[in-house]
Structures are given as structure tokens and as C-alpha cells.
Amino acid sequence: MDLYKKAHLIVAAIRLLEYQEGNLPSIEKICRMLSFSIEQGNLIVRRLKDLGIIDITQGAFGTRLFIQNHLAIETIPRGEQEDKLAHELEKFQNAQKERSKKFESIKAEQAAKKKNLFAEIEQKLKKDLAKKLGEPDSF
Q1: Angle subtended at Cα 77 by Cα 74 and Cα 81, rounded to the nearest 5 degrees
Q2: Are 81 and 15 in contact (CB under 8 A)?
Q3: Segments of the chain assigned E as strands
Q4: Where are the domains of the chain?
Q5: Which of 25, 66, 77, 87 is the most buried (most CB within 10 A)?
Q6: Separation in Å, CA 57 to CA 18, 105, 115
């Protein structure tokens, strides 16, 4: 479903809940009515707020939504899919994989440095021990 259709659904839900309850609805009630997840509802509401279609007010009874300019819905391109969220999620996952690979390579480098350091220390200790015992350097 594209943003245009979702905008119409959100505005209709605001109007219906406002009529039924006699006050401005919350995002949770709208999401429950439309069977949207809270995350998806918040994303859509933020986009509609940015477009000037709805506005959000916060008061003693929580966060409430009201319609600011329902005609602005017609400025939303029809048929535009909400693939941006999936694309952003994929980008984030790829970035996490890259960070993980980088972390593993740094960890491997540190392990190699540690191994080399211990080898050098062991070699120095053997030389020092050989000098103290008066043995020739056979190491």
C-alpha cells in the first residue's frame, strides 16, 4: 500500500475516532483501528506531519493527532511504494555486517600482535636466562 492510501486511512481514522470519542485520538488508537504496528504508524504520522497534513499535540492526556490540511494529501504521488524503509533497513544491515567484519579483522590483528609480543618476550627471557647461566646463545 502506498503513502497516498495510508494518508487517507489515517485521516479517516482520526475523523472517525474524534467523532466516536468526542476528543482527539492517540497514535495507538489509530494504529489499533487500522491494524498497523506502532512503529509503522509513527513513521507514517511523522511523514504526514512533515507534509502538513496532520499535526501532533501533547498534553496532560498524552500525544494526540488532529487534521491540519487534508487537501495536502493530493500532493502525495500515487503509487509510490514504501520501499524506502526496506531499503534503509537493508543499508543498515549491510553497514552492520561491514562493521562486524572490520571488528573481526581488528580482533585478529590484535591476537597476532599479542602472539608476536609473547614470542619476543619469551625469546628475550631465554637470552637473559642463558646469559645469567653463562651458556652461549643457542637460541
Answers
A1: 130
A2: no
A3: 54-59, 62-67
A4: 3-75, 83-133
A5: 25
A6: 14, 49, 60
Q: May I ask the CATH architecture of the domain 3-75?
A: Orthogonal Bundle (1.10)
Task: Kindly tell me the burial class for residue 96, based on how many C-beta atoms sit within 10 Å of its own C-beta (0-12, 13-18, 19 or more).
Answer: exposed
Q: What does the pLDDT profile of the chain (139 residues) look like in tens digits?
A: 788 999 999 999 999 999 999 999 999 999 999 999 999 999 999 999 999 999 999 888 888 999 999 999 998 888 766 566 667 778 888 999 999 999 999 999 999 999 999 999 999 999 988 888 876 655 5
CA-nearest of 24, 19, 78 to 55 is 24
Residue type for position 126: K
Q: Cell triple for residue 42?
A: 509513527
Burial 20-35 (b: 16+ CB within 10 A, else e): eeeebbebebbbebee
